[in-house]
C-alpha cells in the first residue's frame, strides 16, 4: 500500500550503517548545529536584536541596488506576504529601504541601507570563517568529495522543495 512517504525513496546505506553511522542524524544534526552557531553569531553590535530569519532576509536582498521583492521571496522560498512582514520590520529598524520602480509603479524594489549592508557583510564573513574552520582538517581530495556529495544532496532536496 502506498503511503504519504512514497515521494522520498528509502535506500539503505548498509556499509555506513554497519559502521555505526546514521546519515539522518549526521544531516539533521549538522543542520541544527549550523543554526545554533548562526544564532550565537548574532550577538554583535551590527546584528544585536535581529533573528537569524531577519539576517537571512537581509542576505536574500543582498547588495543589489534595486532588488524586486519577488526575487528576494524566491531566494528565501517564502510567499510575498511573508516577505512583506519581514521587510516591514527590517524597514522600521533601518536595515532595508523600499522604493517603487520608475518603469512599473506596481513593482516594489528593495535595497539595503548602510546598516543592512554591514549586517550582510558581517554574516558573509561569519559564513566564510565557519566553512574554513569546518574544512580545515580535510585534505584537498576530501574537500572535493564532500563538495560533490553535498551538491547531490542539495539537488535532491531542492527537487522536492
From TrEMBL:
SMART domains: HTH_MARR. This is Transcriptional regulator. The keyword Nuclease does not apply. The keyword Transcription applies. Residues 23-155 form the HTH marR-type domain. Pfam families: MarR. GO terms for molecular function: DNA binding; DNA-binding transcription factor activity. InterPro entries: HTH_MarR-typ, WH-like_DNA-bd_sf, WH_DNA-bd_sf. Keywords: DNA-binding, Transcription, Transcription regulation.
Amino acid at each position: 500500500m502506498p503511503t504519504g512517504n512514497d515521494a522520498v525513496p528509502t535506500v539503505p546505506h548498509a556499509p555506513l550503517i554497519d559502521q555505526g553511522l546514521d546519515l539522518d542524524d549526521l544531516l539533521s544534526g549538522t543542520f541544527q548545529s549550523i543554526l545554533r552557531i548562526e544564532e550565537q553569531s548574532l550577538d554583535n553590535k551590527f546584528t544585536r536584536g535581529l533573528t537569524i530569519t531577519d539576517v537571512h532576509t537581509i542576505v536574500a536582498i543582498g547588495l543589489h541596488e534595486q532588488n524586486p521583492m519577488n526575487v528576494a521571496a524566491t531566494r528565501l522560498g517564502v510567499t510575498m506576504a511573508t516577505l512583506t512582514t519581514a521587510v516591514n520590520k527590517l524597514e522600521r529598524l533601518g536595515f532595508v529601504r523600499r522604493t517603487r520602480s520608475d518603469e512599473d509603479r506596481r513593482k516594489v524594489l528593495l535595497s539595503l541601507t548602510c546598516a543592512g549592508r554591514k549586517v550582510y557583510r558581517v554574516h558573509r564573513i561569519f559564513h566564510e570563517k565557519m566553512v574554513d574552520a569546518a574544512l580545515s582538517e580535510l585534505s584537498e581530495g576530501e574537500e572535493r568529495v564532500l563538495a560533490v556529495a553535498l551538491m547531490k544532496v542539495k539537488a535532491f532536496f531542492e527537487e522536492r522543495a
